[in-house]
Q: What sequence folds into this?
C-alpha cells in the first residue's frame, strides 16, 4: 500500500515530515483560491464553513478559550476514521487524512502536508488560511502570534496522543499561554444533531480456523510478561483498536478497511475489563468471553464511555499501569498518577501481535496465494483489454476489487486501491475517482497498489507494468527499483537488527546513479487486521526485526510529471542458513510471501548481478510451486499459462557480471579466431 | 582507534550498552576475588580502599546523605580525564575509563561494562561489589534496595550531563527517595591535599598556517546562527573542551592525547566570556583575543571557577541560552530558568566544527600523507624484524610512536596505541603494557590501531597483518572485513543521510556468512583535536552526513581466543559524480584520506566483486600518487619500493564474477576443444 499514506496522522504530527521525507513548508506556492478579491474567488469544490466556524467561536467564547486545536485523528489514533470522527473535515471542508485546524476569534488555519496542498486549496473557503507544513513548532508559532499572553489554548485531550500533547506543551512553554484540556469536544457540541451516530454494527468472533491462539492464551502470556517485568505492572491499558481486536480474536466494521471496533481494554493481573457495550457483541462472542465468569479469565463488559471513570477508580489502588505512549491519548494518560505509570512506546500486546506464530504465518501465506490468483487474473485482463482502450484507472480499480471479492474468505479491500497511470503514478497521494480518471494506455506505465482483507490474512502488493515500449529511463529505473527490492529481500542480517539500519539496501541501486525515493521502505501487516500494522517496519520508531514478523518491502521511483514506479511485496522474517553461526540465535532473512511475477518488459537484465538473477529465479520457482496448483484448482488455465511464461528463469550469463566475463570470453574468441581463421565467415 | 573505547563514558551511561553492543549484565561469571573467606582472597593488584571509603561515609553522614554516586567523568564529559579528575579511580582502585561507583553507609558497588570486568576484579578490594552492567536502571534498583524511603541520594551536579541526571531522576521517580545535588564534591573533600593540583600548563594559539578560519570569523558565524534561529538565543554556552579550543584556535595539554584545556565559554550576541584564567594564556594568545577590546569581539578572560556565578547573573536578564544537552552538566543547566533555555543535543559550535572548510580538509589530508609514511615505515620494519623474534606488542607500540614523532608537525600519539597479537586482538579493550606483552610471530595475526596528533590534523588508522600463512578462516574473514570497508567507502548516498542508515554496508559481507562485529563503524576526527570528535559517525546519536565531515570507517571481526581483525581508514565526505541528479544538492560519497595499503597476504581476491577490485585499484593508485613522492622526499627508498609492491593493481578477472564468467568461458573452451582436439595436449 502506498508508503506515504500509511503513515498514520499521529506519526506525521509527531515526527513532523521527517519520517515520510515529505517536502517541508513551501511559501512560494500560489493558492488556487483568491481571497483578496470581493467576493473572493473559490473553486466550486470549496465548502462554506462560515456558520460552523462562527458557532465554534461562540462555544470558545463561552469557555474563555482563545484558540481551539482540532486534529484529524480519533481517540485511538486510528489510521482510518469513521464519519462520526471526521471533525476536522466537517469544520473545514478539507477531507484529507492528515491535518490540524486551529481557530481563534478572528483567524483560522489548517496545517497539512504536501500530499494534500492542492486538495486543501480546492476544499477550503476563505475562512481558512492554508499552512503548508505539519510541524507542531509551526502551529505553536502561529498560535503565539494569534493568542495574547494570558490566553488559553484548548484541545480535546482524548484526541491527542501523549507525545503530541507534549509537543504542544513544549511549543507553548514559558510563553504565558496556557494549554488547557477541555473534555467536552467543542466541535461535537456545535456539530450537534447533524453528527453521524455512533457505530452499532455487530462484533463477532473470528472462526476457530483463523485463530492463531485463544484469547485466554494471549491473556496468560501478557500477564506473564507483566509479572516478569522489573516494575511488576498490575495492568495493561489498551487504546489501539487493533490491540483489543487481536487480544480477544474479535472483529467488527466500525471504520473503513480495518476490521476493528471502538473499544478499550484494561487487562489487570486479576481481571479483564472490555469497554465496548455488551449489546454490540454477537451471542457466541459474548459467551466465549464470559464462559469463565467469575474469575481471572472472565471478561467484564463495560460501556465504551465508561473507560475514563473506570480507569480513574482503578488507579486509586496500589497499582502500576503499563501503556504505549505512541497512541494512548493524553486524556487517559493524565488520569494516572506519574508514579503509577509504566510507559513504553508500544504496549506488550502490540509487541506480541507483531510476531506471528506458525499457524498465523501459515494463514497469512495461504491468503497471499489466493491474493496472487486475483492479481494474476488482473494483470492478464489488463494485458488483453488495455490495448482496446476500454480501461481507465477507476474501472481498473473496480475490477481488481471484484476479482479479490471472488476469492475465498475475502472481506473486501484492505485500503482504497491506488491505480495510477502515467504521470498520476508520480503523485504519491493519488487514488482515482469516478469521472476524473485517466485512460490506461500501452504508451504509459501503470502502477497498481492494492490489497485485500481475508479471514486468514491481510494483503498488500504493488506491481508496475508497461504494455508497450518503455523509455530507457523507465526501464533503468524500474530495474533499479527491482534490484533494491531483491537486495533487501535476500539480505542476511543478525537477530534484533532495526529495520532502519538495513532499509538502505533497497535504495542503493538507485543511489548509485543519483536517484532515490521519498518514502519509507515498508510496514507491518496483520492477520485480518490493519494493512499498516505497527510497530514493524523500516522506520526509526519501528522495533527490531524478529523471526515471525511480516513487513512490506516497497522501494519505488517517481519521475515528476512523467511516471511512477513501486514494487511492493510482503515478506516474513525467517531464520537464515549461514556458513558460520557466531551467536546462539541464528541470523535472519526474508521469505517473500507475495507471489506475483514482475513485468519482464521493464527489466534490463544486464544490470542485475548473478546473485540477483539467481535470487529472482528461485523466487519465480516458488511462485510456480505455490500459485500454479491454485490456478489449476480454480480452473484458470489461461492464467496458468501466463504464469508459466512470466516466470521463465532468466539466463545467468545475461548478468552484469557478463560485462566482466566478456574480457576473458573475448580473449578466448581471439585465440580461436587466430587458430581457426576459417570460422570467421 | 578502537571502536569500543571511543564511546565516551557519558554515552555508555546514557544509552546503556546499545550503542556499543556490549554484552549485558552477566551474573553467572565467578569473580577472581574471594570475599567469602577470612581474610578474603584478593589479587596483589587490588587497592586497599577501606580508609577512603570510611572517610567518604563520614562526609556523607555529616550531610545526611544515604547514597553518593561517583562517576568516571570530568565536568566536560571528556573522553580522557586528568589525574585530578580520576575520583572514581582514587576511591575504588579501578582505573578503567568507564564506570560508576555508589557508596552507602554499609555497601559500595562499582558498575562497569564487559571491557573492564576482569580489570575491575583485579583492582577492587572487598569493600566493593562489582556490578557487570552500566544501565542506570540497574544502578537505580540497587539504590532503591540499599536506601530506605525518605533517604537522600546525592551526587555532584557538575559531573553529570543533563541526560544522565534525568535518567537517575527517572529511576528514582515516585520511589520516595530524593535525588539531591550537592555542589561540594565529597570525594574531593576526603581526597584533600593528596589530590593532584589543577592544570597550569601554557595555553597557546595555533600557528596561522594551521588555522582554518580566524576565531573572529567563527564567532561571527555562530552569532549569525543565533540571530537566524527562530528562538533568537542571546547566548551559546560551551562546555565541551574541544568547543572552546576550536572556537578560539587555542590549544593546551591539560588532559592526555587531546590538546585541550579546562575552560568554559559564554558567547553572547554582544560579549564573549572565556573562563580559563588569564595567567595561563601565552602572551600572543592573550593579545589575539583582546586586540579588539572593548567591543563585541573582545574576549573577556575570567577564572574557570567563576562560570556558575557568571552564568547565574547572566540569566537574570531577558536572555535565552543555547546549549548541547549531551555534554553540558546538570550543574550548569539547572542555573538557567526553563523558559530561558534553548536545548539541542549539540551546540551550534559543535556542529560548525564538524564540517571542515577546504583549508581544514587540505590540512587533514596533508597530515595523513606524513602519517602514512610512518605507518609504512612501521609495516616494513615489522616485516623485517618480526621473523627474528625481536618484537613484542609493547616494543612495537613504542616503535610506531617514535616513527610518528619523527614526522614533521607531530605532537605525539592521538590515543594509547593498540598493538595486539594473536588472541589479544580479539579483546576489544586490549592495550599492551611493559612486562606483560605478547611476542609478535609470523604464525599469528597482528592488529595495530594507532594515531597521531599533528599541528595540521589528527590521525587514526588500523591495519591487520600476517607475515606467515593465515588460516582459511583468517583469510576469509579479513577479506570480508575489507569488502565491508570498501563497500561503505565507495557508497553513493543522498545528502543528509544518517550514518546509522548506511553503516550496515560495512557489515554485509560478514552477515552473508553469519558473522558480525560488536562495535560501531566509525567516528568523527578533528584538526589537531579529538581523535573521537562528536557528533559525526555512524551511531544513532550522530548527525546526518554532510560534505566536509571526516569519519573513520572501521569494520572488524573478532574470533574469541584466536584472532582479531580491524581495517580502519579516515574518510572525507565529498560530493559524488552521478549519472542522474535528482535534487538540487548533489549526492555524496567518501574520499579515503588514510593512505596505507592492506595486507595482500590476507586478501582472497576471488571473493571480491569486479566493482570492489576496481575501487581497490583506484585507491592504490591514489596512495602511489600521494605517498610515493613524500617517501622519495624523505629519501625512504626501501619504503618506496615496498609501497610499489604493495599497491600493484589486482587483476580484474580474479573477481568473484569470474566464477560466473567461467560458464561462458568453459563453453567456448569446449567448442574450441571440439574443433581443435589437438589443443588438448
A:
Amino acid at each position: 500500500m502506498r508508503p506515504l499514506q500509511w503513515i498514520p496522522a499521529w506519526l506525521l504530527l509527531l515526527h513532523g515530515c521527517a519520517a515520510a521525507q515529505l517536502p517541508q513548508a513551501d511559501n512560494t506556492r500560489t493558492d488556487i483560491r483568491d481571497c483578496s478579491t470581493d467576493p473572493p474567488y473559490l473553486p466550486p469544490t470549496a465548502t462554506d464553513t462560515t456558520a460552523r466556524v462562527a458557532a465554534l467561536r461562540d462555544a470558545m467564547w463561552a469557555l474563555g478559550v482563545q484558540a481551539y486545536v482540532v486534529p484529524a485523528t480519533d481517540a485511538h489514533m486510528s489510521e482510518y476514521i469513521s464519519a462520526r470522527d471526521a471533525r476536522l473535515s466537517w469544520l473545514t471542508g478539507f477531507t484529507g487524512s492528515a491535518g490540524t485546524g486551529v481557530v481563534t476569534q478572528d483567524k483560522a488555519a489548517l496545517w497539512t502536508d504536501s500530499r494534500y496542498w492542492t486538495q486543501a486549496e480546492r476544499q477550503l473557503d476563505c475562512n481558512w488560511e492554508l499552512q503548508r507544513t505539519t510541524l507542531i513548532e509551526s502551529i505553536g508559532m502561529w498560535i503565539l502570534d494569534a493568542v495574547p499572553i494570558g490566553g488559553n489554548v484548548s484541545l480535546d485531550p482524548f484526541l491527542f496522543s501523549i507525545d503530541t500533547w507534549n509537543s504542544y506543551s513544549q511549543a507553548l512553554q514559558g510563553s504565558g499561554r496556557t494549554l488547557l484540556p477541555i473534555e467536552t469536544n467543542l466541535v461535537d457540541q456545535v456539530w450537534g444533531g447533524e453528527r453521524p451516530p455512533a457505530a452499532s454494527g455487530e462484533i463477532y468472533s473470528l472462526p476457530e480456523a483463523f485463530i492463531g491462539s485463544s484469547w485466554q492464551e494471549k491473556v496468560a502470556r501478557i500477564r506473564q510478561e507483566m509479572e516478569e517485568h522489573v516494575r511488576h505492572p498490575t495492568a495493561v491499558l489498551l487504546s489501539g483498536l487493533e490491540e483489543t481486536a487481536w487480544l480477544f480474536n474479535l472483529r467488527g466494521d466500525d471504520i473503513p478497511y480495518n476490521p476493528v471496533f471502538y473499544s478499550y481494554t484494561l487487562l489487570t493481573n486479576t481481571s479483564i475489563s472490555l469497554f465496548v457495550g455488551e449489546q454490540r457483541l454477537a451471542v457466541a462472542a459474548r459467551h466465549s468471553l464470559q464462559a469463565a465468569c467469575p474469575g481471572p479469565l472472565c471478561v467484564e463488559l463495560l460501556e465504551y464511555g465508561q473507560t475514563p471513570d473506570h480507569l480513574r477508580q482503578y488507579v486509586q489502588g496500589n497499582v502500576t499501569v503499563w501503556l504505549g505512549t505512541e497512541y494512548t491519548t493524553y486524556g487517559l494518560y493524565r488520569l494516572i498518577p506519574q508514579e503509577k505509570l509504566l510507559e513504553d512506546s508500544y504496549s506488550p500486546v502490540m509487541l506480541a501481535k507483531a510476531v506471528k506464530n506458525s499457524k498465523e504465518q501459515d494463514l497469512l501465506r495461504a491468503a497471499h496465494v489466493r491474493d496472487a490468483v486475483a492479481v494474476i487474473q488482473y494483470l492478464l485482463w489488463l494485458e488483453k483489454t488495455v490495448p482496446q482502450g476500454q480501461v481507465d484507472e477507476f474501472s481498473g480499480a473496480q475490477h481488481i476489487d471484484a476479482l479479490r471479492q471472488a476469492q475465498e474468505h475475502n472481506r473486501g479491500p484492505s485500503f482504497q486501491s491506488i491505480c495510477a497511470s502515467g504521470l498520476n503514478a508520480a503523485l504519491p497521494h493519488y487514488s482515482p475517482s469516478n469521472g476524473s480518471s485517466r485512460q490506461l494506455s500501452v504508451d504509459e506505465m501503470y502502477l497498481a497498489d492494492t490489497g485485500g482483507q481475508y479471514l486468514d490474512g491481510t494483503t498488500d502488493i504493488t506491481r508496475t507494468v508497461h504494455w508497450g515500449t518503455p523509455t530507457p529511463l523507465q526501464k533503468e529505473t524500474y530495474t533499479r527499483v527491482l534490484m533494491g527490492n531483491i537486495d533487501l529481500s535476500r539480505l542476511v542480517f543478525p537477530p534484533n537488527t532495526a529495520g532502519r539500519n538495513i532499509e538502505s539496501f533497497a535504495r542503493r541501486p538507485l543511489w548509485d546513479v543519483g536517484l532515490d525515493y521519498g518514502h519509507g521502505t515498508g510496514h507491518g501487516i496483520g492477520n485480518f487486521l490493519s494493512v499498516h500494522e505497527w510497530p514493524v517496519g523500516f522506520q526509526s520508531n519501528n522495533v527490531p526485526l524478529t523471526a515471525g514478523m511480516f513487513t512490506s518491502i516497497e522501494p519505488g521511483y517517481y519521475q515528476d510529471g512523467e511516471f511512477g514506479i513501486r514494487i511492493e511485496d510482503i515478506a516474513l522474517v525467517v531464520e537464515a542458513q549461514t556458513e558460520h553461526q557466531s551467536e546462539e540465535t541464528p541470523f535472519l532473512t526474508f521469505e517473500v510471501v507475495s507471489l506475483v511475477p514482475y513485468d519482464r518488459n521493464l527489466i534490463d537484465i544486464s544490470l542485475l548481478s548473478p546473485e540477483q538473477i539467481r535470487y529472482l529465479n528461485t523466487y519465480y520457482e516458488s511462485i510456480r510451486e505455490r500459485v500454479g496448483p491454485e490456478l489449476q484448482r480454480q480452473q484458470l488455465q489461461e492464467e496458468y499459462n501466463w504464469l508459466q511464461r512470466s516466470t521463465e528463469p532468466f539466463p545467468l550469463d545475461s548478468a552484469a557480471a557478463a560485462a566482466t566475463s566478456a574480457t576473458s570470453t573475448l580473449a578466448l574468441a581471439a585465440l580461436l579466431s587466430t587458430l581457426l581463421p576459417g570460422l570467421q565467415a
